[in-house]
Design a protein that fits this description.
Layout: H1 3-7, E1 10-12, H2 15-37, H3 40-60, H4 65-89, E2 96-98, E3 101-102, H5 108-128, E4 135-137
Parallel strand pairs: 1-4
Antiparallel strand pairs: 2-3
Helix pairs in contact: 2-3, 2-4, 3-4, 4-5
């Protein structure tokens, strides 16, 4: 083992966290399939475990800025996606707020929030912390 291998930080995902992340994918897919099939009760019910697990994952990875930023972006993406689904389920997505802006367009707020978080990471944080390169070991 050389010097680089012993001093490089490693992010290792414990098995119980990996299982939770895998379950998160199941909930997310159930939510989106429900949206596609217009299964309102299941789609709405799947918002909660999907979003809660996304927040827990972000919290658990907070010590690694790259993981935190990407997981926060996922959490706000799920929020935007869930709002958009609900707006379609209850048929207020096309209602006009002002001008050409509809209630569906409000989903842009969390979508753009996620882009801002990732822009912060890639354009500001990462260039200033090149020496702290994080290695992820799945």
């Amino acid at each position: 083992m050389n010097h680089t291998e012993t001093t490089t930080p490693v992010y290792s995902i414990p098995l119980k966290y990996r299982k939770m992340e895998n379950l998160h994918i199941v909930f997310w897919l159930l939510k989106d399939v429900s949206w596609c099939m217009i299964w309102k009760p299941l789609g709405i019910a799947m918002i909660f475990p999907t979003l809660i697990i996304a927040i827990v994952i972000a919290w658990r990875t907070r010590q690694f800025m790259s993981e935190l930023c990407h997981n926060l972006a996922i959490a706000v993406w799920i929020s935007a996606n869930s709002y958009w689904m609900v707006s379609e389920f209850f048929h207020f997505d096309a209602h006009i707020i002002t001008g050409g802006i509809t209630y569906k367009h409000l989903a842009l707020i969390p979508f753009v929030t996620g882009l801002i978080v990732l822009a912060y990471y890639y354009l500001y944080y990462k260039p200033r912390h090149q020496e702290e390169e994080e290695i992820i070991e799945a």
